[in-house]
Amino acid sequence: MTAILETRDLVKEFGGLVATDHVNLTIEEGELVSLIGPNGAGKSTLINLITRMLEETEGEIFFEGDPITDLEPHEVVQRGIGKSFQTASIFPELTVEENANIASFGAEHGSFRFNFLKHRSSYPAVQQRTLDTLEAVGLRSQKDTTAADLPYGDKRRLEIGIALASEPALLLMDEPTAGMSPEETQSTVELIEDLQEEMDLTILLVEHDMEIVFSVSDRIAVLNRGSIIAEGPPDEVQGDPSVQEAYLGGVEL
Fold first, then answer.
1. Which of 7, 110, 125, 221 lies 20 to 30 Å (CA to CA) from residue 215?
2. Cα 252-242-3 angle, rounded to 5 deg
3. Sign of the torsion angle spanned by Cα atoms 209, 212, 215, 218
4. pTM to 2 decimal places
5. Is residue 176 part of a domain?
6. Percent of the chain beyond pLDDT 70?
7. Is 174 inside a domain boundary?
8. Domain extent at residue 1
9. Cα–Cα distance list, 220 to 102, 116, 198 (Å)
10. C-alpha span between 61 and 224 (Å, rounded)
């Protein structure tokens, strides 16, 4: 297998606070790796470093073998890293199709360097990508629905669709089931599994629901106080005493 993402001794400090402390993480092509840890462990900071929303204090990040620490966030997306956020980040006044179209245009033309006066239907490749993406997340039949009118679970699906429309090689998913009902959660878990299997996606998942994490992950990396304290297959991580101590004071997960 080939490493698609690698962080080397990644450090982020906020004043005197060390949010990530020499984090070394490697993700191979086709893997679903979950990043877990107690509140304040540094998970969101690490994700924001990878997507270049934050500048590192020390260390390096490589994507498909190339350094990306000098890139802007939109350049990281165009390189092939997509992200779905912890809360739905959509354009509520636009339709489902228009939301996905925006991401598709950005992937096709790069920072929207194209003729805005030309109707979007003039770009058949973009339009097809949009429809294929909505099909993948189960929203093609609702393409003409205003995003604000979608149920909460479908808004989260649309947000995942927006991330997918840029055709990422690596998808970062930040708490995709947060705030969902049990039925919506199960549907989202099935979607995650389908995306990995059918679209050959590599996924880095941040998720608080341990049942989901242990059921879908190929590997799990555990952050605590900014450092990775355990890493490995779900069964191995679940039985690690340091992980049990970090979460529950020694009680088994």
1. 7
2. 110
3. negative
4. 0.87
5. no
6. 89
7. no
8. 1-71+208-253
9. 33, 44, 22
10. 20
Q: What are the pLDDT digits (tens) for 42-72?
A: 999 999 999 999 999 999 999 999 999 999 9
The residues facing 58 across adjacent strands are: 11
The stretch 162-185 carries a mean pLDDT of: 89
Q: Is residue 238 one of the residues assigned to a domain?
A: yes
How long is the chain?
Answer: 253
User: Do 209 and 177 contact (CB within 8 A), yes or no?
Assistant: yes
Is 173 part of any domain?
Answer: no
Q: Which CATH number do you get for residue 15? A: 3.40.50.300
What are 6-28's pLDDT values in tens digits? 999 999 999 989 999 999 999 99
**Residue 147 exposed, middle or buried by CB count within 10 Å (0-12, 13-18, 19+):** buried
Q: How many domains does the chain have?
A: 1
